[in-house]
Amino acid sequence: MKELPIGIQSFKDLRKNPIDYLYIDKTPYIYEMSTKGKIYFLSRPRRFGKSLLISAIDELFSGNNELFEGLYIYDKWDWNKKYPVIRIDFGSGDYSSNEKLKDSLADFLKNYADKFNVILENSAIPTRFAELIQKVSLSAGGKVVVLVDEYDKPILDNVLKPKIQKENRDTLHDFYQVLKASDDHLKFIFLTGVSKFVGLSIFSALNNIFDMTIGDEFAGICGYTQQELEYNFSEHIDSAANKLSMGRQELLDNIAMHYDGYSWDGKTRVYNPFSILMFFRNQIFDFFWYRTATPTFLMDIIKNKSNINEIIEPQTVGSSFFSISDVKMISVSSLLFQTGYLTIKDSEIIKGIARYNIGIPNNEVKDALLNNLFKTYSDYPSDNIEILRDDMRNQIEERDETGFEKNLKMLFAYIPYTLNLKYEKSYHALFLITMKLLGFDIDGESLTNLGRIDAVMKLGAYNVIAEFKYSAKKSIKIMLAEAMKQIKNKKYYEKYTDRPIIFLAIAFKDNDLKCKFVQFIGK
User: Which residues, at least 6 apart from 287, have a Cβ–Cβ distance to it below 8 Å?
Assistant: First the structure.
C-alpha cells in the first residue's frame, strides 16, 4: 500500500520523498487552467487540498518536470519554458493587527527580492510589490506567475474586530490592485481562499478573473470523487474492511455516509480529503475534519444569533449567496457554506437563472455542526447525552408525558436567558437541534397539501408527528388542544401511515412547557 500523505502540502516533498506517498492526480484540471486562461480564483473550505494544488502549480511553471512523471500533464507540457514564480501564503501568519499584516507583506517582498537578486527602491508596500514583479520579469526575460494561498485569511481572522478587519481589507485592496497594473509582466495568476470578497480589487479591478468555485468544469479539483477513492485507495479499503469486520461495499457505504457529499455544482460529489486520509490511517469513523478546520470566529458569530432556523434548515439560494459584498451583513448560512458546513445538494436553471439547494453534506459535518450548535446554545453537559437520549426515546414510545416534559424542561433550563426566546420558531428550532443531536431521525417543516408540519420523527416502529405552540397570552392547556386539533384537521398523518403514528403536541409559555401524546389509531 502507498503511504497516506497526511499533513503534506508540498508537492515536491510528496513526489520526491523516499516514502512512496499516494497522490490523486489533479493535473488534468491544472492543464485545463494553464492552457485556457490567465487569472483564476478558487474558494474551498480549509483542509481541502488548496495548498497542495498551489504547490503543484508552482512546481509546474518552475519547470520541475521530474516531479510530474507518470501524471496526466507530463507529456503535454512544454518543459523548455520556465517561469519565475512569486508565491504568497497567508496560511500561517498573525494578522491580529494591521501593523502585523504590513510587516508580513514587507518580509515577503524582501524574501523574494533576495531570491531573485533584485533591489527594491520603493518604500510603500504596493509600489514595492509592483517593482518586484517588473524587475523579476525583466531579469528572468519572461513573464511572472503569481500564486496566492488563503488570500482572505487576514480579513476572516478579524471578522469580529471591525476596525482591524477594515484596515486589513484596505491594505489588501491596495496590494492586490498591483496585479491589474502589472498585467504586461504576468503569465498566470491563481488565488485561493475560503470566501469571495467582491469588494476587493482582485475582483472589482480584474475584469477577466475566472471564478472556478461554482460549476461543473472544476467541481472535482479538490477532494476525491467516488472513482478516485475506489481506484487509488483500493488496498486501504480492503484493510479497513478487514479491521472493522465489514464487507467491502458495506464499508464504502459507511465511508460515503460519513465523508462524501460535498459538491460545488450539485452533481459532482467529492469526499473530504483530510477525513478520508485520517480514516484510513486510524481505521475508525470519527470527526477528523471538524477538529482541525473549524474557524473560531464562526461559532462566535453564531452565538450572537437568536434565529437559528437559517442554520439547520435546507434552503434555496441564488448566485449572490456565494459572494460577500459586506462583511458586516454576511449571513450565518453563507459563512457555513464557505467554511464547509453546508454544500450544494442540487441545482437547477429556472428561466435562465441558477438556483441552488443548500444543505449539510454528510454525517461527520452534521454531527459536528449539531454538537457545536448544542454547545453554543446550551450549557448542558455533553457527558450525559447518551443517557438522556435513551430516556427520551423510551418516553416517546411509552407516551410518558411527565418524563418527557421533565427532560425537555431540563434541557431548556441550560439555554442562556440572553437568547430571549419569545417566538415559536425559536423553540421549534431548538427542539429540532436537541432531538437531532440526541440521534433522532427528525425533519422540520414537512409540507403537505394542507399545511406545514412542524416536525416529523421516525422512532423505532413509529412515525411521530409534532406540532409546537407558543403564546404569552393563551393557556398551555388551550395551546395543546389547538396543536392536536391542527394535526387532525389538516390530516398531517396521511403521508406517514406506513407504520403506527404518535401525535405529539408541545406548548410553551413563559418558563413553562407541557406536552401531550396521542396514539393515532385511524380516521
Answer: 364, 367, 368
What is the pTM for the complete model shown? 0.81
392 with 505, same domain: the answer is: yes
Q: Are residues 346 and 449 in the same domain?
A: no
**SS in 3 state form for 343-357?**
EEEEEEEECCEEEEE
Grid cell in block for residue 9: 502540502
The CATH number covering residue 189 comes to: 3.40.50
Count the Cβ atoms, other than its own, within 10 Å of residue 261: 21
**String of DSSP letters for 130-194:** HHHHHHHHHHHTS-EEEEEESTTHHHHTTTT-HHHHHHHHHHHHHHHHHHHHTGGGEEEEEEEES
Compare 28 and 432 and report the one with higher pLDDT: 28
Q: How confident is the model over 186-204, as pLDDT tens digits?
A: 999 999 998 887 666 567 6
- Domain range for 167 is 11-211
Q: How far apart are CA 79 and CA 81, in angstroms?
A: 5
Summarize pLDDT for 6-56 with one digit per residue, the tens.
Answer: 999 999 999 998 889 999 999 999 999 999 999 999 999 989 999 999 999
The closest alpha carbon to 84, from 130, 9, 134, belongs to: 134
Q: Are 30 and 72 in contact (CB under 8 A)?
A: no
Spatial distance between the Cα atoms of 508 and 467, rounded to a whole number of angstroms: 11
Question: Is 347 in the same domain as 400?
Answer: no
Q: Which of 417, 395, 423 is nearest to 517 (CA)?
A: 395
φ/ψ of 359, rounded to 5, equals -160, 180
The secondary element (H helix, E strand) that includes residue 324 is: none
> What value does the mean pLDDT take over residues 464-487?
91
Query: Of 326, 295, 316, 372, whose CA–CA distance to 45 is shortest?
Result: 295
Question: Rounded to an integer, what is the distance from CA 227 to the centroid of its chain?
Answer: 22
DSSP-based three-state secondary structure for 12: helix
The total number of residues written for the chain in this structure: 523
Is residue 520 within 8 A of residue 502, CB to CB? The reply is: yes
Between CA 115 and CA 120, with CA 116 as vertex, the angle to 5 degrees is 100
3-state secondary structure of 512: strand
